[in-house]
Amino acid sequence: MLIIGICDGDIAVRTLLSDFIKRYKEETGLTVTVLSYDSGEKLLRHYPLEMDLIFLEIPFARISGIEIARKIREVDEYVGIIFLTTMLNHVLEAYDVRADNYLLKPLKYTRFLKEAEVARARRGQNRFIIESNDDGVYKIYTKTIRYIETDGRNTKIHAESDCISYKTMKTHVELLYEPYFVRCHTGFIVNLLFFEKLEKNELLLVTGEKIPVSRQRKREVVNRLKSLYENEARR
């Protein structure tokens, strides 16, 4: 899930960015919450506890976007800030508030997409989920999850230690949006960071564990592997 804020005095800009986010959600299947503000004062007054990315207009009439960003940084060190502007004349000030980038108006979807993906990757770093069952409450870092399997009416998360979850496989798929997670079988979600090899209809992990791959899902697994490791090879 991503939480994206839009703060711009122009309703046309807010509408366009909302349309971009709707398209992004359709293309990625991610859950994205949109928070929209028509003034910097409203953004500061109703600033949420958690935000991943803010698209922020610079030339507000009463308080500049730079000053808004300064106040945001007092309460939130990590949120991505993308300034919306018609001209690049605040570079040094933007550096002071650790802005991530600029988007020049008129806005284009390709530029928006790049910034959304950066925010998505940032959120994935050291991301964790909270699981609770009858035995207790557990903080599980997503990168440590090797695979999840169905376990009777429940599911079981295999990470640094095993954990019974009352979530369905569908819910796990929605929560684990990182590109290295793939549902390879009706009863299995696997983390491809642990991939060693794929032979016939079975994934072998570096831990020696074997995960079944259904014929219906094998193409998706192969495509995800190619995408994941080809990108790594190009870095």
What would you say this structure looks like, in words?
By secondary structure, the protein is an alpha/beta fold. Helix content is 36%, strand content 31%. The protein is built from seven helices and 15 strands. The strands form four sheets. The protein has a five-stranded parallel beta sheet. The protein has a five-stranded antiparallel beta sheet with strand order 10-9-8-12-11. Helix 1 links the parallel strand 1 and strand 2. The longest helix has 20 residues, at 215-234. The chain starts with a strand and ends with a helix.
Give the arrangement of secondary structure elements.
Elements: E1 2-7, H1 11-28, E2 32-37, H2 40-45, E3 53-57, H3 65-75, E4 80-85, H4 91-96, E5 101-104, H5 109-124, E6 128-133, E7 136-141, E8 147-151, E9 154-158, E10 162-165, H6 169-175, E11 181-185, E12 188-191, E13 195-199, E14 202-205, E15 210-212, H7 215-234
Parallel strand pairs: 1-2, 1-3, 3-4, 4-5
Antiparallel strand pairs: 6-7, 8-9, 8-12, 9-10, 11-12, 13-14, 14-15
Instruction: Measure the end-to-end span.
Output: 26 Å
Helix content: 25-40%
* Fraction in beta strands: 25-35%
Helix count? Answer: 7
| Sequence stretches where pLDDT stays below 50 over 5 or more residues | none
Oligomer: single chain
Task: Let me know the number of strands.
Answer: 15
Give the structural class. alpha/beta
Largest sheet: 5 strands, parallel
- Overall residue-averaged pLDDT value: 87
Radius of gyration: 21 Å
Largest sheet, spatial ordering of strands = 2-1-3-4-5
Dominant shape: elongated
- What is the H-and-E element order? EHEHEHEHEHEEEEEHEEEEEH
